[in-house]
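User:
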Amino acid sequence: MNYEDYKELCSVIDYHMDRYYNQDLPEISDYEYDQLMIKLKAIEKEHPEWITPDSPSQKIGGTTKREAGVKITHNVPMLSIEDVFTHEDVIAWVNKVLALHADAKFSVEQKIDGLSMTLRYKGDNGKMRLDVAETRGDGIVGEDVTANALVIPSVQKYLDLPYEYLELRGEVYMSHEDFNRFNEIQEENGKKTAANPRNLAAGTLRQLDPAITRERGLDMFVFNIQDGPSDLMQSHDEGLNTIASKGVATVYHRLCSNADEVIAAIEDIGQMRGELPYDIDGAVVKVDQVDYRSDFPAGSKYSAGHIAYKYPPEEKAVFMQSIEETVGRTGKLGFIGHVYDNETGKPARLCGTNVSRVTLHNQDYINEMKIGIGGVYLLKKSGDIIPKLVGLVMEPFQIYQASTHCPVCGSTLVREEDTADIRCINLSCPAQCTRAISYFASRSCMDIAGLGETLVDALVKGGYLSNYADIYHLYEHRDELVEAGIIGKEKNTDKVLAAIEKSKGNDAVKLLAALGIRNVGVSTAKELIKSFGSIRALMEASEETLVGIQDIGATTAHDIVEFFSNESNRAIIDDLEKSGVNMVKEEAGNASDKLSGLTFVITGTLPTLSRSEAQALIENNGGKVSSSVSKKTSYLLMGEAAGSKADKAQALGIPTLSEDDIRKMLE
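Assistant: Predicted structure:
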């Protein structure tokens, strides 16, 4: 390879480092990234004169962000761990350590796939109090995310330890359950889903609002004592056990004495991968005696006395036995491939688990991969968790084609324009009934307290609800519901029925957002009701009329017309209206047009107004609120901890306002 090719490889790796560390949007797998780094290191070993300080091999990770707080310099640099990819490499490293220190021991640990965070504790009246939590950033400077760390259940605010200072390093992660819950909500609201738990965990920890961090759900395992008293800094294993006895969640670790035991521990952790409620991307091997670690440096980028074994991706050839169509609770048609190991005829064994089902995404994916019954495909677990087809071994006789009618209710299926999604748009379809009704009753929509998804599901199964208009007929079954105890006894049942009655008076914006029309969230609903005044008027609008409304594009206009042209949907609207549910615009008190033509972005914590209250204040006076700063922004309404939006506004020359300033504009 010549120098130009080397620089091009550096550029490619830099690009993917930025996507992974700074944008939390990787485009390639960890394995593919590792292969690029292996290639780079091999070239630099052959041409050490080409290495510069900004080579990817010399950099620790990402740049520092300010979304969740201020920059902070680490007391102890947060370095990476050098990767190895074969058992032979692990054995050679362990024997190298034992050759110098025959009494050395090794801690073998799960390598959690998340993002690193350091916790600094200080002495406080005989105990220790969390003083600062910081992300890795570039390894030298990170972000102060203390407020967000305090809402993570596994992060202890106080430790019952008598020391003056203690610094712990760990990995923040998101469980599969919380990740799936987030994506279900995003899909339900027509928003972009997260690619994987690691990316979502990174974005969640950097949120400005700790309430969002708490709601999404994060956890943390401590894997190292970075700094502290000598009695915790001699044996790594004993140190972890000590802090674990005080309530600190520590990473799974096993103490080993030789290479055979280390390899056995690595293999055992590998077998755990498919059964863990969180992702791991390898196993870490550390010299247990902390004082010995400095004898085994790995360069300025890596922690001394550590290596990380990366598991190779497992692949199996599988036979496509059958394809099952499913309908999600938002009406989207899904495809499940039923497969078996092409050699054994049994479920494929990958990462310690049996795999017999694989998601086939959509018809475009099926066409691209040439998927059909009788075909043979390469299967692997993406991120060691999600089964995924990655290659074609033998073509099927025929590529599978989706049905034209819903497999659950028999309604005609509709393919959305310019997308690969096929949907059942019958809101009474049993497959989407529970989710549609739960969304209708949720806080951001009709805000019916007590009517959550669990209760809705019970009412659907009991035959009381088949669509969200049926909510307003539940009072007709009041005595029956009390007797059955589905909602509860008299008090709880009457409480939910009262919340349902109260919701009839909501503004039409809430009702329109609650209908679950594709691409019509709360902000779009506001614009539509503002323009048409009522849902009845909107129902008769043409696509041509709709695209003339601010922020309504051709796709959204088509979705609206298609929804209201469905006879089942119109019947539900009629039922809602007969039940007394409000369908017209609510006239806001003290409304004006003083902010007409102005676009605001809100950031930080305001003295007296919540984010939603500030938005309502602006919109009730004719202004518009946007989520991001651009050249079209008129003002940035800014509170404390404003973050990166303030920097961008300053760079674009956009004026900023305080809460007092905007109140004066409205006097």
